[in-house]
Amino acid sequence: MRLLTHNMLSSNIKGVANGFPLKIEVVKVVEKEVDFNIDFLKNMFHKVEWKALAEASRTVGYAELPENVDAAMLDSDDFLHKFHHALLELHLEEGALVCPETGRKFPVSKGIPNMLLHEDEV
Amino acid sequence: MWYLCVFYHRLLDYRKPEVESLADLFSKGLTDLQCNGSLEWKLPKHHHPDSPFHFVNLPSEEIARSVANRSILVKGIFELWGEGSNFEELEESIKSYPDEKQLPYLTSDSTFKITVETFGKVISFEEQTERIRSLSYIPFKGRVNLKNPYHTFWLIETDDYDSNNGLPPIAGKRIFFGREIGTADRKLLPTYQLKSRTYLGPTAMDAEMAFLMANQAQAKSGKLVYDPFVGTGSILVAAAHYGAVTMGADIDIRVVRDGRGPDCNVWSNFKQYGLPMPIGLLRADNNLPPWRSGLKEKLVNCLLTVYNVFRVDGLEFKSSFNFIRVICPDIAVLFMEISQIHRSLQITRAAKEVLYSESAKVFDAIICDPPYGVRAGGRKSGGRKLLKGVIGPYTVPDDKRTGHIPSTAPYSLVECVHDLLDLAAKMLVMGGRLVYFYPVLREDESIDTTFPEHPCFKLVAISEQLLSYRYSRVLLTMVKIGPYTEEIALASKIKHLEFKENHLKWLEEGNLHSAVFSPADNHLNGSGDTKITKDSKARYRGKYV
Questions:
Q1: CA atoms within 13 A on the CB side of B377
Q2: How far is CA A73 from CA A7, A40, A51, A78, B106, in A?
């Protein structure tokens, strides 16, 4: 699971008011190279929750992202490459996503998060 | 400018919408050109609407070329130099075509080629050569080059006899001569055909159809495309071919995670064609999608409040909003605090709408083939027992929570479509496209023209594909035109309930399946008269091709 996916997911258990961002429990993180696509990065820049992305990338062991950003930084190659790496190249291969409110764990195995709810959570 | 557009004679309902959607895609960025997404069409004399020959008005030759090259069903788009019902008329027509439009393509330093094409008949090689020679009145100065010419000209003729060409009779024969602007690249179909695919499911989408869907969704580089019923990824493969970044979800974890082994899964389907892999695959339920709600809606509400505090007189709303964004980079936290203090402030409606469109929606397109219970049934979370209301919800004991496999409940089509529209309204960018298949029973020969509606969407294309005598599926293309708000979510729910009531008889679980598969005898009982009306209809292959 890429951090882009993590940035879009939240816990949707019944009764949970604020299920975002999910905490990440790391068992195994792998890096996979992805083609650099500047249009896509610019498209996504305004859509990600930056705080959650910076936090998540630190959790998986990449601390290069700045705390605060603004659109002017999109002109910097260095920044774009860091953003690209954090957003698309870091994979949580094994681990879990933890609901910030209830502590319910959504397992991530073989890179696929399992967001399905149990019968009594619907 | 008007062009002759010649289609492949197949999937008739899909041809014009494809050209319209691509023309819209390539005209974007141009000002005041074809902004409404619909094009002007005309038919040649005496031609039936199902004819492969159409005239279309496109903004420029460049756009016409882009449209033709990317399309699947366009045999060619041509600049028409002349037409007629016999060769004398054709000659006259070509001779009256202005010289300044002909001569630049006939110069001595260029090379050319003439292709002879027929529709509804076959002519021998000698006849073809003879026809090319008869064009000697055109002042070709360049040399012939059959392999790689600068300019290709087409002589296309359709015959007047009324049978075997798959169309209702055409009154007179028609000959067209034109300069080729662009042709479709159908070579990609054998490359991507399903039988070459390593990992297949029972409902994998046919490659040609998947490409048509990707074209309807205007997939291209830099865009994010999502399929909530991804299965083996057959639809996303087409979107990825056009450069889109893809993402998919499925309720069945076996398809998305395991496939049939290390080299036979969704990932390997992309690797096989050298395409970039989906950016994310997950197991999720379309009934309870795990996406953070409305993405940034909370932030938007805070912003609105702050905007009211900081409102600068005389400034347009948008610019003062940008002003706030620039001066406070870490808006989220700061605005949260301020909004706590100024909770009581009122927000104008216009301001709210600007902010909602400003608030980031993620997906540029959603393309899918929902499970409608004919070949594959949908499932949702919730559990069987709970759904039937016999026993209360099953509570998972605490010691068994890890590794618990939840049971799922059947997911009716009507619910599924509602969830899909709601998700699309919430997650698509403004102008984003929702492209999906919807089943239709063909009980009364004419297809039922009521399709699901949503206040956020405009339905721009309806293309039917006949699947059997009894039912067909319709590809619906919807464009997001309005922002998603809570009021709209409610209104659409009410609309949906009305829709459900009117269509309940076959949208309910299992009904569609039995309508499609029940023994023929039941179906025909007492319907002798309908049979007569069917027979009395003009018979031609039409949509069956």
A1: 15
A2: 20, 15, 16, 9, 52
Tell me what pLDDT residue B433 has: 96
**Which residue in B224, B325, B382 is closest to A119 by CB distance?**
B382
Scanning B184-296, the segments in alpha helix (DSSP H) are 188-192, 207-216, 234-241, 253, 266-271
Question: 0.80 exceeded by the pTM?
Answer: yes
3-state SS, residue A48: coil
Which pLDDT score is estimated for B509? Answer: 58
Averaged pLDDT of chain A = 91
Structure tokens at B479: 């464009």
Nearest Cβ partner for A112 among B279, B282, B394: B282
Contacts of B398 (CB under 8 A, 6+ apart): none
Give me B521's structure tokens. Answer: 């005898």
Q: Which of A56, A45, A44, A61 is nearest to A20 (CA)?
A: A56
Torsion, Cα of A41, A44, A49, A54 (10° steps): -20
Lookup result for tokens 């774009």: A80
Taking 3-state DSSP, the helix, strand and coil percentages for chain A, each rounded to the nearest 5, stand at 35, 25, 40
Residue B530 is predicted with a pLDDT of 43
The whole-number pLDDT of residue B299 equals 52
Residue B327 Cα, gap to closest chain A Cα (Å)? 10
A33 touching chain B per CB within 8 A:
no
Residue B84 main-chain phi, psi, to 5 deg: -175, 170
Note whether A52 and A18 are within 8 A (CB): no
pLDDT at B346: 41
Q: What span, in angstroms and rounded, lies between the C-alpha atoms of B320 and B91?
A: 65
Q: Which of A3, A33, A43, A65 is the best residue to mutate to test the B interface, defined by the most B CB atoms within 10 Å of its own CB?
A: A43
B127: its two tokens = 């006849």
- Residue B524 has a pLDDT of 47
Instruction: Give the whole-angstrom CA distance, residue B345 versus residue B358.
Output: 20
pLDDT tens for residues A66-122?
988 887 888 899 999 999 999 999 999 999 999 999 999 999 999 999 999 988 888
Task: Give the tokens for residue A34.
Answer: 């992805």
What is the reported pLDDT for B344?
37
CB B472 within 8 A of CB B466: yes
Give the span between the Cα atoms of B313 and B187, in whole angstroms.
60
The residues near A107 (Cβ < 8 Å, ≥ 6 apart) are: A95, A96, A113, A114
CB contact (8 A) between residue A5 and residue B247: yes
Contact state of B292 with A19 under an 8 Å Cβ cutoff? yes
Looking at this predicted complex, what is its ipTM?
A: 0.93
Q: Which of A2, A105, A117 sits opposite B288 (nearest CB)?
A: A117
**Residues constituting chain A:** 122
Which segments in chain B show pLDDT lower than 70? 29-37, 160-172, 293-360, 383-393, 443-449, 502-510, 520-545
- Chain B contact for A11, CB < 8 A? yes
Q: Which 3 state secondary structure label does DSSP give A68?
A: coil
Place of tokens 């909530």: B228
Tell me if residue B150 falls in helix, strand or coil. Answer: coil
Tokens of B265: 């899964």
Q: Could you tell me the end-to-end alpha-carbon distance of chain A, in angstroms, rounded to an integer?
A: 24
- Output DSSP code: residue B263: T
Q: Is B72 helix (H, G, I), strand (E, B) or coil?
A: coil
Q: Is B316 exposed, middle or buried (0-12, 13-18, 19+ CB in 10 A)?
A: exposed
